[in-house]
């Protein structure tokens, strides 16, 4: 073998570039099979694919020229739906997906986590960029051509899955454009879902597309959806009863969204609730009680039951509500499902729930609250937070109808959290206490203990931000409703003053004085308006000064 | 990376010169493959001079080869595939340097998305699509 002498590293690199890569290329070329392929196959698809990939890169790197690209290349890409080479087609779908991605601002996590989408009921932080206007009519055209890909006999399952991903992206980001083709799209969903020989991923995507479209069904397109209700519920029922856990859980998620679609029809005598929801409730309850099913279904069905209660709580009968809550209570008792159930439960909005207040109901409520109190004593902080949120939800549902002894129990149980050990727990507890005071402003003996804790908390040097706001709100309510002797509260607030928490304490005192009178102190503060106050020598003087300031600024 | 930016740029320039000077020979493919390997990894270190000299040549050569009558389709396809890979990597790693050439790149890509030298009939005519036409960047 020839021995080479290198003068420098640079020379080595030159050699590598000019020779090694050539040798590698020639080595690859020595492969007989590859040369045979060259002789027989048309390789022009490689050029088309590379051109599509360059387009994709331009879209991602230079989004400012999307409009110009929409005018030219977008149509050209749609034409490649007729491409004979699968690899090129897959890249075309991928590039069009990136086109769609670039015309919206969206939270990627939400796109990839279906449960997150349901848990976060807040409106999604996504909006269309102005370039969407240049695309809208083209997307509709793309959809009409994409539908043909599914009916093409030459389309392989892999290709159909890629096409369904593009359809899903379009349904999520630009549902208006997809809804323009609602009839063929719905037929497509139905056909591709119902063919059990189709790959599961394709069937799952079809259910996701359906969900995205259901979310978008308002305004002009609503009547078009209404005529499909029967077909939609038939498809969803078939999905939730499917043995494959992915299909079943997607079916439950679709059903959760379908509840919201049907809600406006609830007052109609022949409304969607009776026709479509009621027959499915039994199925939901029985699935909720099953234990030997996949975790994903369990979570989806829990969220579904919660969506059912929060959407139709006022029309559900007691014999439907009690089994649902009994099953949810069982899930709370199970360590594995507890966290998810708590998260789901805390999302029940405060729509009135039509509970028939029977013995059975009180028994269930009692067990429910007991379980929550047990969770408040656990070491796990997230459980404590969820338990406080769920207690707030319970209070929101029942309001004045929550029996007094339950209100007392709640106050007793949350009182220990009003301290500076964990300020978030303190904030949630004060918030819950405020809600209870709103419900029951006449006074409970348990309030004294919580007020004592709140006074101690206001003197902590750690208190800040929202906790101060909550404390101020609490003391305003205490003063307003005469829940305790206001003079005595101010007296306690003004003893053992912590020099590091003068402002929080002063704000609390100001709140009590403004709303509750505290006559002695008002007199005292007014008498003491002297020049010497301005020097604020002692903590007491400082507190008096700050308090007067807060009273003055908010009166 | 052991080499300095200056050395890398020198290697790049040398390969660009070889590509340009071998435009009429089969060897151009070997130099293009080598240059593509470098661009994939260190395109951003080659300097704007290299981008400015190679991209116009590539775009012109693509135009010449796609419009010329040739029987060696495999060679042409292979070469254009590597050309496009080089363009792709330059857009990714040197977006600023490639910006002035975007219009020409998109025109080339527009033609190549439907490139099929073996097809006598343009199957796209069968689709009833409104022709948007090539745009011009302002």
| Mean pLDDT metric of chain B | 83
Number of helices of chain B: 6
Shape of chain B: globular
Structural class category of chain A: mainly alpha
Largest interface here, residues on each chain?
A-B, 44 and 53 residues
For the report, how would you describe the main beta sheet of chain B?
none
- The residue ranges of chain A in which pLDDT falls below 50 over 5 or more consecutive positions are 1-7, 20-39, 119-123
Strand content of chain A is under 5%
**Structural class, from helix and strand content of chain B?**
mainly alpha
> What is the string of SSEs of chain B from the N terminus onward?
HHHHHH
Summed up, the helix count of chain A is 30
| N-C termini distance of chain B | 39 Å
Helix content of chain B: 55-70%
Short key terms for the protein model shown above:
heterodimer; A: 555 residues; mainly alpha; two-stranded antiparallel ribbon; 2 strands; B: 138 residues; 6 helices; globular; disordered C terminus
Please describe what this structure looks like.
The complex is a heterodimer of chains A (555) and B (138). Chain A is 72% helix and 1% strand. Chain A has 555 residues and is mainly α. Chain A has a two-stranded antiparallel sheet. Helices cover 64% and strands 0% of the residues of chain B. Chain B is globular. With 138 residues, chain B is mostly helical. At the A-B interface, helix 1, helix 3, helix 4 and helix 5 of A face helix 1, helix 2, helix 4 and helix 6 of B.
């Amino acid at each position: 073998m020839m021995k080479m002498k290198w003068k420098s590293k640079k020379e080595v690199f030159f050699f590598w570039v000019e020779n090694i890569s050539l040798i590698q290329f020639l080595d690859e070329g020595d492969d007989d099979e590859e040369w045979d392929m060259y002789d027989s196959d048309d390789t022009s698809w490689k050029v088309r694919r590379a051109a599509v990939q360059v387009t994709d890169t331009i879209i991602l790197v230079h989004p400012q020229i999307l409009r110009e690209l929409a005018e030219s290349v977008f149509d050209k890409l749609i034409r490649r739906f007729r491409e004979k080479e699968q690899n090129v087609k897959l890249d075309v779908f991928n590039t069009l997906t990136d086109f769609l991605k670039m015309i919206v601002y969206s939270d990627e996590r939400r796109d990839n986590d279906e449960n997150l989408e349901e848990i976060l009921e807040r409106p999604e932080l996504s909006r269309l960029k102005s370039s969407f206007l240049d695309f809208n009519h083209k997307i509709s055209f793309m959809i009409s051509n994409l539908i043909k890909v599914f009916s093409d006999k030459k389309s392989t399952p892999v290709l159909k899955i890629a096409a369904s991903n593009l359809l899903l992206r379009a349904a999520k980001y630009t549902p208006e454009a997809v809804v323009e083709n609602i009839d063929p799209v719905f037929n497509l969903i139905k056909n591709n879902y119902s063919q059990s020989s189709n790959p599961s991923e394709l069937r799952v995507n079809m259910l996701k597309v359906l969900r995205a479209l259901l979310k978008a069904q308002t305004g002009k397109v609503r009547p078009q959806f209404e005529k499909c209700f029967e077909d939609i519920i038939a498809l969803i029922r078939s999905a939730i009863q499917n043995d494959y856990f992915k299909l079943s859980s997607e079916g439950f998620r679709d059903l959760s969204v379908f509840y919201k679609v049907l809600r406006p029809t609830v007052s109609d005598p022949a409304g969607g609730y009776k026709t479509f929801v009621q027959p499915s409730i039994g199925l939901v309850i029985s699935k909720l009680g099953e234990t030997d099913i996949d975790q994903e279904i369990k979570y989806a069905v829990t969220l579904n039951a919660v969506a059912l209660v929060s959407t139709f709580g006022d029309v559900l009968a007691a014999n439907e509500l009690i089994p649902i809550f009994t099953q949810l209570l069982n899930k709370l008792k199970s360590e594995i499902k507890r966290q998810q159930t708590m998260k789901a439960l805390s999302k029940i909005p405060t729509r009135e729930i039509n509970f028939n207040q029977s013995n059975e109901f009180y028994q269930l409520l009692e067990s429910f609250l007991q379980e929550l109190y047990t969770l408040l004593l656990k070491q796990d902080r997230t459980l404590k937070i969820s338990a406080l949120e769920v207690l707030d939800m319970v209070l929101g549902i029942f309001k004045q109808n929550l029996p007094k002894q339950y209100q007392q129990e709640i106050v007793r149980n949350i009182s220990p959290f009003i301290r500076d050990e964990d300020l978030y727990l303190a904030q949630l507890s004060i918030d819950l206490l405020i809600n209870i005071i709103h419900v029951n402003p006449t006074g409970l003996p348990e309030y004294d203990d919580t007020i004592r804790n709140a006074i101690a908390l206001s003197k902590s040097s750690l208190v800040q931000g929202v906790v101060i706001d909550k404390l101020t709100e609490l003391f305003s309510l205490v003063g307003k409703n005469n829940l305790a002797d206001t003079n005595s509260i101010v007296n306690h607030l003004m003893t053992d003053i912590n020099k590091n928490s003068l402002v929080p304490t002063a704000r609390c005192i100001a709140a009590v004085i403004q709303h509750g009178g505290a006559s002695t102190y008002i007199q005292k503060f007014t008498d003491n308006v002297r020049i010497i106050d301005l020097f604020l020598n002692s903590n007491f003087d400082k507190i008096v000064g700050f308090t007067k300031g807060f009273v003055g600024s908010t009166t | 990376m052991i080499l300095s930016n200056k050395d890398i740029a020198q290697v790049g320039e040398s390969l660009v010169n070889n590509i340009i000077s071998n435009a009429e020979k089969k060897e151009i493919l070997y130099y293009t493959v080598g240059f593509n390997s470098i661009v994939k990894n260190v395109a951003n270190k080659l300097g704007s001079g290299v981008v400015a000299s190679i991209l116009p040549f590539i775009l012109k050569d693509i135009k010449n080869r796609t419009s010329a009558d040739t029987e060696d389709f495999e060679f042409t396809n292979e070469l254009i595939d590597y050309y496009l890979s080089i363009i792709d990597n330059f857009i990714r790693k040197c977006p600023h340097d490639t910006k002035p050439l975007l219009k020409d790149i998109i025109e080339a890509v527009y033609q190549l998305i439907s490139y099929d030298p073996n097809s006598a009939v343009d199957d796209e005519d069968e689709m009833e699509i409104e022709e948007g036409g090539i745009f011009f960047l302002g």
